[in-house]
Design brief:
Blueprint lengths: L1 H15 L15 H17 L5 H21 L6 H16 L5 E3 L1 H6 L12 E3 L12 E3 L7 E3 L1 H18 L15
Parallel strand pairs: 1-2
Antiparallel strand pairs: 3-4
């Protein structure tokens, strides 16, 4: 949910920087339904049915990254989509290396006011002796702040890529003020 809130804030920065969100109507996004399905499955796994077969949850969690990855590959014609994809791939690596769970630093979980779940599925949780722990959720938005949660370098790269892509596509002053023609098929 934190990424969704951050994305909304990113969208709001476009008009502030002189960009026009209406330019997004000209962009031909491919297979966006895959990313929407991945997001819906993650919401289902984490908030609607966190209890159940942990193995099924973890495999489904990994599958959501595969779906989103296919969507990114289909949209590499979009400026900075590669950066979004790199962030997602780093998250996928950390999750795959830890059996379907994003490893989170205990201190980051505590700072965000989150509990270690252990018994029910969590897309991000403390993992003892985590593999690729540096790619996990090592930072926190502190408890009491809007969207308090933990996040990873992959999350940060995805948001940076989305920020740059939005500003490029919408022609904001941050990226020269001209929307590239290359985003049109």
């Amino acid at each position: 949910m934190t990424l969704a809130l951050a994305f909304i804030v990113l969208v709001l920065t476009v008009p502030l920087a002189g960009g026009r969100l209406s330019r997004l109507e000209e962009v031909r996004f491919r297979s966006v339904w895959l990313a929407a399905l991945a997001f819906a499955l993650q919401v289902l796994l984490v908030t609607v049915i966190p209890e159940g077969d942990t193995t099924v949850h973890r495999v489904a969690h990994l599958a959501t990254y595969v779906l989103a990855g296919i969507c990114v590959v289909r949209n590499l014609h979009i400026p900075f989509a590669w950066l979004v994809g790199l962030g997602g791939f780093l998250n996928f690596l950390a999750i795959a290396a830890n059996g379907g769970v994003m490893p989170a630093r205990r201190g980051a979980l505590e700072a965000a006011g989150l509990d270690v779940r252990g018994s029910e599925f969590a897309n991000s949780d403390y993992v003892e002796n985590a593999n690729l722990a540096f790619l996990g959720d090592v930072w926190a938005i502190p408890d009491g702040w809007p969207g308090a949660n933990v996040f990873s370098i992959g999350d940060a790269l995805m948001l940076l890529g989305a920020f740059l892509a939005l500003h490029a596509l919408c022609g904001s002053r941050l990226l020269g003020g001209v929307a590239p023609k290359a985003h049109l098929d």
